[in-house]
Amino acid sequence: MNIPIFIPIYLLVLKFLIFQLLDDIIPLANMDSKSKATVHAVRAAVFTEYGGSPHIFKRACSSAKRACDLDPNTSQWFYIYSLALTTQRQFLQSHKSTPTDNEKNAVQKAIMLSDGNNTIFNYHRMTLDRDTAIRYYHDNKNNHDKFWIEKNRQANETIVKMIKTIISMEPKDPHLVVKCARTIMTLPIMVRDFNLGKQYLTKAYEMAPNDATVLKAIEKTIEVYKDIVRYIQK
């Protein structure tokens, strides 16, 4: 006796989709430049996020650079390239190392291609400038030359302006707003602005009043600021 075999309809649909996808696959060599760039950029983003070794981060930078070369008019590729370079540097050296010109040039290209309207690109550029200023300060903290003091002050004032620009662009991510608040509340005392930082934290809270991760980030920022104040008052 033959027993009929009933194949669920979803399996038939899945089988059809699989064959359809296989038919749509195009070898990388046959893709146009923009499609190739997308593949390299995605690869770079994955390597950057899940790297963990010098070899993988090197591949991330190489893939991102390839994407930029293939499609030099897409801003995201230059941002990914800058991010890959930053991640590689911090992995090989440390988070306290000085950002390179290549990192800054790549993200600046991304900013230019996006007409300066991408808050994430601008935030990354700001963090590179902030880290540069911090490293420059520690390398010259015993230097009492007026020229150096003025240069340091100007660098930090520029960072404040960059943060204000980012916030004026109405970022959609409350976590980014919290990060901006934390930065402006922990800059050197000459430019540190607790009240402005507090405004940004309030803004972040209003954007996501029920998001536990945002509330935790706000709480942590306030704790860090209090720690700085206590350290100064010792």
List keywords for this structure.
234 residues; Serine Threonine Protein Phosphatase 5, Tetratricopeptide repeat; 10 helices; disordered N terminus; signal
Short description:
Keywords: Signal. InterPro entries: TPR-like_helical_dom_sf. With 234 residues, the chain is an all-alpha fold.
What is the N-to-C order of secondary-structure elements (H for helix, E for strand)?
Answer: HHHHHHHHHH
Q: Give me the Rg, rounded.
A: 23 Å
CATH class of the domain at 32-114: Mainly Alpha
- Quick check: average pLDDT? 87
Q: Residue share in helices?
A: over 70%
Q: How much of the polypeptide forms β-strand, as a percent range? A: under 5%
Helical stretch tally: 10
**Amino-to-carboxy terminus distance:** 91 Å
- Reported CATH architecture of the domain at 32-114: Alpha Horseshoe
Could you list the spans in which at least 5 consecutive residues all have pLDDT below 50? 1-7
- 3D shape: globular
Number of strands: 0
Q: Helix/strand-derived class? A: mainly alpha
Keywords: Signal
Signal peptide: 1-23
InterPro entries: TPR-like_helical_dom_sf
Overview of this protein structure:
This protein has 234 residues and is mostly helical. It has a domain at 32-114: Serine Threonine Protein Phosphatase 5, Tetratricopeptide repeat (Alpha Horseshoe). It is 75% helix and 0% strand. It is globular. The protein starts with 8 loop residues before the first helix and ends with a helix. Residues 1-23 form the signal peptide. Keywords: Signal.
Topology, pairings included?
Elements: H1 9-24, H2 33-50, H3 54-70, H4 75-92, H5 101-113, H6 119-139, H7 146-168, H8 174-186, H9 194-207, H10 212-233
Helix pairs in contact: 2-3, 2-4, 3-4, 4-5, 5-6, 6-7, 7-8, 8-9, 8-10, 9-10
